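Can't paste images in this forum, so I'm doing it all in text. The chain is below; anyone willing to post the predicted C-alpha cells underneath?
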Amino acid sequence: MHTPGIIRPRTVTPNEVGSMLTLLGAGIIAIVVVIFIMLGWNFFTAIGVGIAIIGSLLETYTISVPGYWAVIVLNELSHEQRVIFQGLNIKLPWETPGRKIDLRSDLSEVLGKDKPETYPTKDGRVFVKYVYLISPNVSDQKTAAENVLKWGSAEPDAIKKKGRALFSRTLSDFLKDMDTEAVIAMGKSRVNEEAFKGDVLTPYEKDHGANAEIVLEDIDRDPAIQKARDMIAASESYGEAMKKLKAAFPDLDDKEIKELFMVAEFKNVKKNINEFKGLENVTHFGSFGGMMGGDGGGHSGGDHK
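Text version of the structure:
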C-alpha cells in the first residue's frame, strides 16, 4: 500500500514526434517560399507567410490539457498509444486524443455504513466498517504515463469491483483464524495495519497503475451476537435466556439457538445457570445470521453483507 504523492507529472514527448514536426514545418515553409518567390514575392515576406500558415494550423499539432488531467492519444498510423499531461503539448497531425483521465479521481466506497459487513472469526463473527480509496498512481514521473495507460485500459467500475473483492478477501483471510475477543482487543488500527501490511496489494496496484488505500473505521462483535450476549447476561437462568433468544430470533431453530447461546459466551450468564442439557455435543460453532449450524466457512454473501 502506497501513499499518493503530489500530482505533477510532465509529458515525455517521444523524439520522433519532435523530429517529424520539425520536418513537416520545414517542408511547409520551403514549399510556401518557393511558391511565393515564383510569384515574385520577397524572400523574407514568403518566409513570414509560411510561418503564419504554420501558426494557423496550431490546433493540428498541439493539444492543451487542463491541470490535474491526462489524455491518452492514439497514433492512427502506428496504432500506438501515449499519454500527455497538463499544459500545451505537441502532437502529430495523425495523433487523435482519446480517453481523458482525472488524476484527482478516487474510486471509493464505505462498506458497512448502511448494512452490516460481517466476517467470520474462529469462534463467531465480527462487524466491520471500512473505507477504500483507489486512484491513479502518478506520483513517480518515471512510471506516471505507463500507470495512466494501465488505469485507462479498464472501466472504473471493473477496477473498483476487483479491488473490493481483494480487500474483502484479504480481511477475511486475516480474521478467520482469530478469536473474536482477540480481534476486538487488537483494535481497528492494528487490524488495519496487520491485515494489509507488506506488499499484499502491490500486484493489484501494478496491474491497474493505481494507489489503493484501506481505512478500517470500526470493528466490533457481530451486532446479532452482541444482542444475544446482552440478553443472556441479563437472564437469571438458562431457561430464561433460551426463551429470550427464541423470541428475539424467531427464524432460528433450536439447534441454532443453542449454538448462538454458546457463541455469545454463556459464561456471562448469572451463576444460577447450571443445566446445559443438549449442549454437550455442540463442539463447533459456525456462522450466524441465517447460516447457523453450517461449516462456518466463508462470509455472508458474495459482498460480505
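Residues 41 and 225 are 93 Å apart (CA to CA). The chain has ten helices and seven strands.
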